[in-house]
Amino acid sequence: MVANRPRVIGLLGGISWESSAVYYRLLNELVRDRLGGPHSARCVLASLDFAEVEQLQAAGRWDEAGLLLAEAAQGLEKAGAELLLICTNTMHKVAGTVQASVGIPLLHLADATADAVTGRGLATVGLLGTAFTMEQDFYRDRLAGHGLRVLVPSAEDRLTVHRIIYDELCVGAVREESRLRYREVIGRLVAAGAEGVILGCTEIELLIAAEHSPVPVFPTTRLHAEAAVTRSLAH
Q1: Cα 139 to Cα 144: distance, rounded to the nearest angstrom
Q2: Is the backbone peptide bond immediately before 47 cis, with ω within 30 degrees of 0?
Q3: pLDDT tens across 59-108, in order?
């Protein structure tokens, strides 16, 4: 046994695989940067079929979706995972079910994001994500629990943000006209008082970067990966 070996990170991915690929790259880049040389991340990946998950989401069958992810999480634990990530914001709706199914800690994406926001001294943030993430309380309340005031786009803007995620980003389509739509939505959030904007869907980072916003953006995939590597390397 190698002394002080990094903890194995378990990834619940495929939701969608476009962002899961970004997770894998970031984890390995971050470990390499922190440890140097040929080091890479110790991780195991369970890649689900997003079409199945999307159908359960659309039908409101969240209990079934939770059991699907919990079964995959148990497989990751058996494969040696010592820390668990759900590689999507939306499916944190079933984070409680997933955590209850395993004996390893789940690193909640909203907690990692909130820590980054409060670390910048901000109190009011705009939230972009799927309609589930923007409209339901499982994610917004988690952020609010860290003392944050959370603003969401108008109903019309929420439809636009959601459509672009599912119809384009989840299938790898990154379009300049959609980037413009997102920038317009961000502008309206800033006008409403947002001091920063959470990119609360892991695919949004394929479309929006810091230079596309007049206020700081918080890329949840990167923040989640950074927190996971810190936890993995801590002894």
Answers
A1: 9
A2: no
A3: 999 999 999 999 999 999 999 999 999 999 999 999 999 999 999 999 99
> How far is Cα 161 from Cα 24, in angstroms, rounded to an integer?
25
Q: List pLDDT tens digits, range 200-227.
A: 998 999 999 999 999 999 999 999 999 9
Nearest to 50 by CA among 75, 14, 84: 14
Taking Cα atoms as reference points, which of 109, 96, 15 lies closest to residue 63? 96
The Cα–Cα gap between 39 and 42 comes to 9
Tokens matching residue 85:
């990530």
41: which residues sit within 8 A by CB, 6+ positions away?
6, 9, 24, 27, 28, 30, 31, 229, 232
Q: Tens digits of per-residue pLDDT, 149-158?
A: 999 999 999 9
Catalytic residue list: 88, 201
Tokens of 109: 């994406």
The two three-digit tokens of residue 72, written as one number: 């995959």
